[in-house]
Amino acid sequence: MRASLLSLVAAAAAASAQSTDAPVVQGNPVGAQYLATLPIKAGSSLGGSVQAESAPDGKGVLFSISLSGLPTEGGPFLYHIHEKPVPTDGNCTGTGAHLDPYKRGETPPCDATKPESCQTGDLSGKHGTIPGQSFTAKYTDLYVATSMSDPSYFGNLSVVVHLANKTRISCANFSMNSVGAVSSSMPVPVGPSSGHAMPTGTGGYNSTMTMTMTSTATGTGSGHSSAGESTGSPIMPTAPAETSAPANSAGKAAAGAGAVIAAAAAALML
Ligand SMILES: [Cu+2]
């Protein structure tokens, strides 16, 4: 039965590994900002910019798009982050395909109601095409990164504007305005979880450990250890009863073992 449960879990894991969905990008460096400015070519009035900066909570990237002078025909227009920068000759064909680190490919077309399933660089697929000759939009895309180590990083890539028939009518490289600050990871969960486990799991036996910790903690004056002191002290009154009645302590040990099993079971369910 346990084996079948395990194989079920393995099958579920394999299924999710096959998925091409893009993960939500967390931890984008706060304040990171990039800007792509479309060059105005001779004989064309198309211009504008795509500004991108880390969302304030580091989850995804906030885009501010402002374009004007789009053609009177050939829309609705598309725009994407492409997988390569614009070459020095300015030829938009050199930008290659779309940014697509999770390899979902061009087909089927992006379903905007499932943005995680779209090509990461398919901004107009996820957030809407450009209907007219000028366009402004602001939105957060959760699947692109301002962290250089992330496969969805776009800061060294380009944005390309297309006619509806995919013809590339303009392109520009992103340039960095600010690299941003990487927020430090918080080791908070360790404290509370070990604090809970100690009283349940080992009961009275552990109270001596807690007390030793408390006495050294007063010396060093750590704020976190003094929080442990308050959970430790309620156990103290049970300690004398334990030493005076050996039979009782065996019962307690059994109860303690039960608690350990329950805790282990709870851990497995997580
Ligand atoms: Cu494109």
From TrEMBL:
Keywords, alphabetical: Antioxidant, Secreted, Signal
GO molecular function: metal ion binding; superoxide dismutase activity
UniProt-listed Enzyme Commission number(s): 1.15.1.1
Region feature Disordered, mapped onto this chain: 106-125, 216-249
Matching Pfam families: Sod_Cu (PF00080)
Catalytic activity: 2 superoxide + 2 H(+) = H2O2 + O2
Signal sequence bounds: 1-17
Biased amino acid composition, Low complexity: 216-233
Translocase found in the keyword field: no
Family from the record: Belongs to the Cu-Zn superoxide dismutase family.
Name used for this protein in its record: superoxide dismutase
Organism of origin: Trematosphaeria pertusa
Lineage, top ranks: Eukaryota, Fungi, Dikarya, Ascomycota, Pezizomycotina
